[in-house]
């Protein structure tokens, strides 16, 4: 019996890096996985790896998390396929350098849209079904820059700080409905955004644990690797 047997998990940014690693880990733990991302070919690669390693098929949905209609469509498709969504991992992110003086309004909005508005839209879209089933686990990927900031990463730092506040707010609003909402800071990972760091698979046991929290577990809190 896996920790996530019978659960349905939706993962944004599932085409590469942490999203791909978590999709594999969730499937290995017994979950059906729904893969979201802008690049369909990368999602299909993830689905192929999941199938090879676990024998489980994945639902792949090409979707931009900054587009409300696409987000709503993705959630509707997942519900039509599986009838429920138990777990949401808000992982999709954009990390581009830029100081306050150098960033254009367009560059600022792009990062805020993906890193903060995207999780808001996905969370809002899955909440009705989670409320109906009186169960939900939402995990938002954060960064130490949310609290510390960093020169040259103004938009990313601000977006992650906003995501942390949003997480605590949703945790407070949804606790009575059996929905737990937490943050996870994986630290530096090797990915398209970072050339160096840990293998993303190293942190997936932590994410599986947050996804399988029992009723009465922590909510509105930050969890970190190591």
UniProtKB/TrEMBL annotation:
InterPro entries: KR_dom, NAD(P)-bd_dom_sf, Sc_DH/Rdtase_CS, SDR_fam
Annotated ranges, domain Ketoreductase: 7-187
Protein name per UniProt: SDR family oxidoreductase
Keyword Oxidoreductase found: yes
Record GO biological process: bile acid metabolic process; fatty acid elongation
Gene3D superfamilies hit by this protein: NAD(P)-binding Rossmann-like Domain
Molecular-function annotations in GO: oxidoreductase activity, acting on the CH-OH group of donors, NAD or NADP as acceptor
Signal peptide positions on this chain: none
Organism lineage: Bacteria, Bacillati, Bacillota, Bacilli, Bacillales
Alphabetical list of Pfam families matching this protein: adh_short
Family named by the database record: Belongs to the short-chain dehydrogenases/reductases (SDR) family.
Keywords recorded for this protein, A-Z: Oxidoreductase
